[in-house]
């Protein structure tokens, strides 16, 4: 994967960084805000020794397989260290984040914890709960191996606070080609209205729920892709720096389109996770599901083959735009074994670690020095897209907004799912922005 191009819109999409600056306030005070020492980190041969407790929400499925691959490599490369799996189950980390917040509040941090790169981490930074990892990033190769605009998205006031393990794309439609063929749907719809027309064809063909959804966070992800489709990359990115109003006509159109899409979806409970919704596409009870590209591993696990068992395309109206999120790992302040934690970070950011992890998880490496030839077809296409597309930041996965703002957006979407009040949704989204934008 080569070094991807940076566009003007992509620069606007670094709204997460502007948000970070305003949400952290005077974030230069406190130990966690002190710049990391210059120079690269040098790990001890075989590892620092001791227990290394790693906190994630990768407790099942392809996510666990990816974590298992890292654990195996960690034991090989750092035999002096003892890996301790602290995973907590729950889609998109909802349960894990609550447990983590409690542990950090009680001064019981793990050695390292998973977080979504971008604005989500500003909450931990502002509270002085994580340390800069500039020295680890430099030891891994810095901008020679990580895209500079990715490093820019990770940087807050001159410091980097996490090591990215992967890149995911959120604006992907996964579809069952057999169901579409039966419904007479041919080709890829160009925009949201064309996709809705195809969904109506699927419904008319006898499919009860053409579009599958899971719990609230999956609906937030669906909404963000509709916003991206109807507003375009620049308008969507403007939602986070204040240049696009959350009560604009374009947002109102997106809210109406979101309502229409949900009218063709299954009934889901708040806690329903994503695999069940993806499985509906696999078994043909749904034609479409909007999900991040971790879904590709679910298809593989269930024996569905690319092109015959499933197909995929960017959410209509978002072709040429990559809705970005990245899993990353941190160095908590006050952890018992900081050198062991850095051993883990070195593995996560290494070429060997990223290749093993991403092959299992369905994502693509954050590093640019890993070739596509060993990856399946979908991941090869994602590598190319990340290099060439305009990059925007995901709402649902913490790249665009901090946790407080995401909580307010999630509450608005949950309320809308019950009431289907478009004006109420737009009003609630505008209030959420007013309460959380710097």
From TrEMBL:
Compartments, as annotated in UniProt: Cell envelope
PANTHER family, per the entry: ARABINOSE-BINDING PROTEIN-RELATED, BINDING PROTEIN COMPONENT OF ABC SUGAR TRANSPORTER-RELATED
Signal peptide start and end residues: 1-20
Job of this protein: Part of a binding-protein-dependent transport system for a sugar.
Principal location: other
Domain of life: Bacteria
Pfam family, one: SBP_bac_1
Record's keyword annotation contains Acyltransferase: no
Protein family according to the UniProt entry: Belongs to the bacterial solute-binding protein 1 family.
Gene3D superfamilies named in the record: Periplasmic binding protein-like II
Protein name according to UniProt: Probable sugar-binding periplasmic protein
Keyword annotations: Signal, Transport
GO cellular component terms attached to this protein's record: cell envelope
Alphabetized SUPFAM superfamilies for the sequence: Periplasmic binding protein-like II
UniProt keyword annotation of Manganese present: no
InterPro entries reported for this sequence: Bact_solute-bd_prot1, SBP
Origin species: Phycicoccus endophyticus
């Amino acid at each position: 994967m080569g070094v991807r191009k940076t566009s003007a819109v992509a620069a606007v999409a670094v709204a997460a960084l502007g948000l970070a600056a305003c949400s952290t306030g005077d974030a230069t005070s406190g130990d966690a805000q002190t710049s990391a020492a210059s120079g690269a980190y040098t790990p001890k041969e075989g590892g620092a020794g001791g227990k290394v407790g790693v906190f994630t929400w990768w407790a099942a499925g392809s996510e666990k397989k990816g974590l298992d691959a890292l654990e195996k490599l960690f034991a090989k490369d750092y035999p002096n260290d003892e890996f301790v799996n602290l995973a907590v189950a729950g889609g998109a980390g909802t349960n894990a984040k609550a447990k983590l917040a409690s542990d950090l509040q009680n001064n019981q941090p793990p050695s390292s914890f998973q977080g979504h790169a971008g604005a989500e981490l500003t909450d931990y930074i502002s509270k002085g709960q994580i340390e800069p990892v500039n020295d680890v990033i430099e030891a891994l190769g810095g901008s020679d191996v990580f895209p500079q605009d990715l490093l820019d998205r990770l940087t807050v006031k001159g410091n980097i606070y996490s090591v990215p393990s992967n890149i995911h794309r959120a604006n992907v439609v996964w579809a069952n080609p057999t169901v579409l063929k039966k419904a007479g749907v041919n080709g890829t719809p160009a925009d949201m209205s064309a996709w809705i027309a195809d969904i109506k064809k699927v419904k008319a063909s006898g499919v009860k729920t053409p579009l599958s959804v899971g719990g609230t966070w999956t609906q937030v992800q669906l909404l963000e892709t509709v916003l991206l489709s109807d507003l375009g990359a620049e308008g969507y990115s403007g939602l986070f720096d204040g240049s696009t109003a959350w009560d604009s006509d374009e947002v109102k159109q997106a809210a109406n389109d979101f309502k229409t899409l949900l009218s063709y979806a299954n009934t889901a409970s708040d806690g329903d996770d994503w695999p069940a919704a993806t499985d509906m596409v696999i078994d043909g009870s749904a034609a479409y599901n909007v999900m991040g590209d971790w879904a590709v591993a679910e298809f593989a696990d269930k024996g569905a083959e690319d092109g015959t068992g499933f197909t995929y395309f960017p959410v209509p109206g978002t072709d040429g735009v990559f809705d970005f999120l990245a899993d990353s790992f941190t160095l908590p302040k006050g952890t018992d074994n900081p050198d062991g934690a850095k051993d883990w970070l070195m593995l996560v950011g290494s070429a060997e670690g990223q290749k093993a992890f991403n092959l299992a998880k369905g994502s693509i490496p954050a590093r640019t020095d890993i070739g596509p030839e060993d990856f399946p077809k979908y991941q090869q296409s994602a590598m190319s897209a990340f290099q060439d597309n305009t990059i925007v930041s995901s709402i649902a996965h913490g790249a665009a907004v901090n946790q407080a703002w995401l909580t307010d957006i999630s509450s608005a979407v949950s309320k809308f799912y019950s009431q289907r009040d478009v004006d109420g949704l737009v009003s609630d989204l505008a209030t959420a922005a007013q309460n959380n934008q710097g």
